[in-house]
TrEMBL record, chain A:
This is Dipeptide ABC transporter ATP-binding protein. One of its GO terms (molecular function) is ATP binding. InterPro entries: AAA+_ATPase, ABC_transp_ATP-bind, ABC_transporter-like_ATP-bd, ABC_transporter-like_CS, Oligopep_ABC_C, P-loop_NTPase. It comes from the Bacteria. Belongs to the ABC transporter superfamily. Transmembrane segments: none annotated. Keywords: ATP-binding, Nucleotide-binding, Transport. Residues 6-256 form the ABC transporter domain. One of its GO terms (biological process) is peptide transport. It comes from Guptibacillus hwajinpoensis.
TrEMBL record, chain B:
One of its GO terms (biological process) is peptide transport. NCBIfam families: oligo_HPY (TIGR01727). It comes from Guptibacillus hwajinpoensis. It is a peripheral membrane protein. This is ABC transporter ATP-binding protein. Coiled coil: none annotated. Residues 9-256 form the ABC transporter domain. Keywords: ATP-binding, Cell membrane, Membrane, Nucleotide-binding, Transport. Transmembrane segments: none annotated. GO terms for molecular function: ATP binding; ATP hydrolysis activity. GO terms for cellular component: plasma membrane. It holds the Pfam family oligo_HPY. The keyword Cell membrane applies.
Length: 326, 334
């Protein structure tokens, strides 16, 4: 039995929409609306879905950069949502984040050494000499050299900056890394370098990854298990191979069929979805996908399908797989 | 042989910056035939957008087209006045820009923006132009076309705005449509809709399309022919099928291998070592040599020329001077 590192239960984030001169609440953005999943030690869990479906909001709540509206998160068995900022500090060391935009997330006025050293200072680890030694070690781990330590972020290419971001995340020996679109801003040839680096680090250091991305090819490559999000919910979750070869939810099927494949000979039946993704401030009734679903039935517009295990390890929320419809 | 609609030859566009002269487009040659879909692929900074802006003569200081010819229907566009170019833009050659908001004005209604070009180029009255605009919005698959005419750009979703941009570029039936990363900012399910639409327009109106993208999947999906750019130069060109089956330039080979595939999981991704060079930073030899695993002495001495590499394919690589040398690539490809 695999050991759980992080258990997320019915996590929600509702943002108030304020309007009018009195700044009254005129609505709610249900950015994340009841997300449940478990990360096992040493695995990579991929979270995919289209723009605005709530991937980053989920990641930010797990980092406690955002306070959840509802739900439970257990880290190493300990409930962490109720922890105070102070109590949270110890846990912070164990959970680190890598961001999409390597440029925006690095202070342009600090040297690389200072950037990587910062988390060590925050967590009061080592003396000055030990920290310097650790920075050099980290630079080498991520494929840079110790002579890079004195340079500034703008002197690096996008791929190198992402390596610096990874080095900073690794500085305090975290157990879990939440990577939010870590390769989306990179060129194809550089993206492959960073993905390989993340895989190597995981093997060497036994890291657990929550890998957030919209690129389905990248997610398939890196993930052991995958959750597909739509409008603030996970609609399907399974082992990566199962999900890609035998997806059950009509949204996953459409999403996978929409990805252009780098092979002109590959003929495929594409499911072209009509319409746009509905707004999370005004989500459809019943199944949130029913407005675009090619397989929608009468029941779909009124009853919310339950997220259930339909085969061992394979979960989905769709009325097609409920007993009375099969 | 049929005459290409548009022919670009030895195009050079340089930027004159404080750091010196940057050859962003460095002697680029390509053509596009009637009804063809040509893909220009390459990584960030390789010169794709600058190439297309040069064709439209929209390069702004500190940039300047410093050499070459752009022949459209037998005439060199580079000798045209701004007034003559204004007639050609939109009317003859339409363009969808990489930054959608730069071409949609946020303070004007969609309808007014659409009919402006139609009225200028077609010399139609307002009513006729309005009706034509509605029919184009319907052609690009937008619902509620009549109502949309009275709405503002910010009222539309990203996918809808992109359709409006395509409608705008298609409104005067251009011979050539240049689309710079038309789907990059969109979700895959919306991208699939837009690519379907472009295929349909190409089929039904026989418009030639130059599609600029860094996404090899998109290229494979809709292009007949491909030009691969690296560091301001074309490094490979040929038919889409041939390039994907038998890429002839080490960079193209690496690029195709680096892409994670949704259909199969590769054990480990192939990755090209090093970084993409800034244009102008390499002064001698092949620009790809510092990253190329096939590089030999000559590569560091002399900049290669585009060489025939079989089946209508050309590659800027010294390996193709000699069949025996080129054979190494065959082994990698299989
Ligand atoms: N601070 C906020 N206030 C109000 N709404 C917000 C806020 N932050 C995010 N949202 C909304 O929540 C939804 C989910 O946003 P989120 O950034 O999590 O999406 P995402 O899946 O990461 O998308 P992307 O792929 O574009 O990064 C969006 O509709 C967004 O507009
Ligand atoms: N305004 C400018 N000033 C100086 N140099 C410029 C300017 N615009 C472009 N360049 C140079 O031209 C090169 C090519 O830029 P271009 O925009 O054509 O790249 P691209 O291939 O379209 O990249 P992307 O995929 O990022 O859109 C850049 O590397 C840059 O060096
Ligand atoms: S529940 Fe109905 S609408 Fe939702 S995905 Fe399943 S079939 Fe489609
Ligand atoms: S010319 Fe030499 S360095 Fe350049 S791509 Fe060919 S083999 Fe590689
Ligand atoms: Mg996000
Ligand atoms: Mg560009």
């Amino acid at each position: 039995m695999q050991e759980a590192l992080l258990e997320v239960k019915q996590l929600k984030k509702h943002f108030p929409i304020e309007g009018g001169v009195l700044k009254q609440q005129v609505g709610t953005v249900k950015a994340v609306d009841g997300v449940t999943f478990t990360l096992h030690k040493g695995e990579t869990f991929g979270l995919v879905g289209e723009s605005g479906c709530g991937k980053s909001t989920t990641g930010r709540m797990l980092m406690r950069l955002l306070e959840p509206s509802e739900g439970e998160v257990l880290f190493d068995g300990k409930e962490m949502i109720s922890l105070s900022k102070n109590e949270m500090r110890h846990l912070r060391k164990d959970i680190q984040m890598v961001f999409q935009d390597p440029f925006a997330s690095l202070n342009p006025r600090h040297t690389v050494e200072k950037i990587i050293e910062e988390p060590l200072i925050v967590h009061k680890l080592g003396n000055k000499a030990e920290r310097k030694k650790r920075v050099k070690e980290l630079l080498e781990i991520v494929g840079l050299s110790s002579y890079h330590a004195k340079r500034y972020p703008h002197q690096f290419s996008g791929g190198q900056r992402q390596r610096i971001g990874i080095a900073r995340a690794l500085a305090v020996n975290p157990k879990l890394i939440i990577a939010d679109e870590p390769v989306s801003a990179l060129d194809v040839s550089i993206q492959a370098q960073v993905l390989n680096l993340l895989e190597d680090l995981q093997k060497e250091l036994g890291l657990t990854y929550l890998f957030i991305a919209h690129d389905l090819g990248v997610v398939r490559h890196i993930s052991d298990r995958v959750g597909v999000m739509y409008l603030g919910r996970i609609v399907e979750m399974a082992d990566s191979e199962k999900l890609y070869l035998n997806s059950k939810h009509p949204y996953t099927q459409a999403l996978l069929s929409a990805v252009p494949v780098p092979d002109p000979e590959y003929g495929k039946d594409r499911i072209i979805l009509t319409g746009d993704v509905p707004s999370p401030s005004n989500p459809p009734s019943g199944c949130p996908f029913h407005t675009r679903c090619p397989k929608a039935m009468d029941v779909c517009s009124s009853v919310v399908p339950e997220f259930r295990e339909i085969e061992p390890g394979h979960h989905t929320a769709c009325h097609l797989y409920e007993e009375d419809h099969v | 042989m049929e005459q290409p609609v548009l022919n670009v030859s030895k195009l050079k566009t340089h930027f004159f910056t404080d750091d010196g002269e940057i050859p962003a487009v460095d002697s680029v040659d390509f053509h596009i035939n009637k009804g063809e879909v040509l893909g220009i692929v390459g990584e960030s900074g390789s010169g794709k957008s600058v190439t297309s802006l040069s064709i439209m003569q929209l390069i702004q200081a500190p940039g300047k087209v410093v050499g070459g010819e752009i022949t459209y229907k037998g005439e060199n566009l580079l000798t045209k006045s701004e007034k003559e170019m204004r007639k050609i833009r939109g009317n003859e050659i339409g363009m969808i820009f990489q930054e959608p908001m730069t071409s949609l004005n946020p303070v004007f209604r969609i309808g007014n923006q659409l009919i402006e070009g139609i009225r200028i180029h077609k010399k139609w009255n307002k009513k006729k132009a309005w009706e034509h605009a509605i029919s184009i919005l319907k052609l690009v698959g937008l619902p509620r076309a009549e109502e949309l005419m009275n709405e503002y750009p910010h009222q539309l979703s990203g996918g809808m705005r992109q359709r409006v941009m395509i409608a705008m570029a298609m409104a005067c039936d251009p011979e050539v449509l240049i689309a710079d990363e038309p789907t990059t900012a969109l979700d895959v399910t919306i991208q699939a809709q837009i690519l379907e639409l472009m295929k349909k327009l190409n089929r039904e109106t026989n418009t030639s399309i130059i599609l600029i993208t860094h996404d090899l999947g998109v290229v494979a999906e809709i292009c007949d022919r491909i030009v691969v750019m690296y560091s301001g130069k074309i490094v490979e060109q040929g038919n889409t099928k041939d390039i994907f089956q038998q890429p002839k330039h080490p960079y193209t080979i690496g690029l195709i291998e680096s892409v994670p595939d949704v259909r199969v999981r590769k054990d480990r991704l192939y990755s090209i070592p090093g970084n993409v060079p800034k244009p102008g930073s390499i002064h001698k030899g092949c620009h790809f040599a510092p990253r190329c695993s096939f590089a030999f002495d000559k590569c560091f001495e002399e900049d290669p020329v585009l060489l025939d590499a079989g089946s209508n394919q050309q590659a800027r690589c010294w390996l193709h001077e000699d069949e025996k040398k080129a054979a190494v690539l065959e082994r990698v490809n299989s």
